[in-house]
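Please check this one:

***
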Amino acid sequence: MGRSCLSFVAKGARSVGHEGPGYWVALSGAPSPDANMAFLDSADPATVAHAVGLVEDAGYPTLIMLAGESRGSPLGGNWQPVGTIPFMASGLKAEHLQPDSRVREATMDDFDTISGLLAEAFHLDRQIAEVIAQIVGLGEQATKVFLLVENSIPVSTVLTSIVDDAVCVWGM
């Protein structure tokens, strides 16, 4: 999942992307935690401090997710728990592998459409939605954005990344 999220970090001057044993940090530099995330799966105080330090040094509003051994780890500073996020996994069945003629891969020509769909679906400021939508222009083979078009109207988008044998789904 970390490698997937890191592929979404824009290659801009403000972005920060790090992955190490027990953590990953993927910060776009946008002024919203919706576009800046860190994940910890280590109870090692040095690992926790390093990952939190990367976030704090960047100074961006960030969502830090604690999982596995890191749950309950003190982060110091003004960090406060705000709830839980479900992480889901599902094996693909044969019927999920059949093409749907309403779905197509998005291109940079769809940037405004993707931004609008993300802003509406997730109640994001348009600037934040555009930071997320820029993934369509990365040109990385394993990272794709798709649109569902019904009666010539784009109604849904999804961002995906393939890592090893997993398809990670974002912004659906």
Observations:
- The chain has a mean pLDDT of 83.
- Residues 45-58 form the longest helix (14 residues).
- The longest strand covers residues 153-163.
- The chain is about 25% helix and 25% strand.
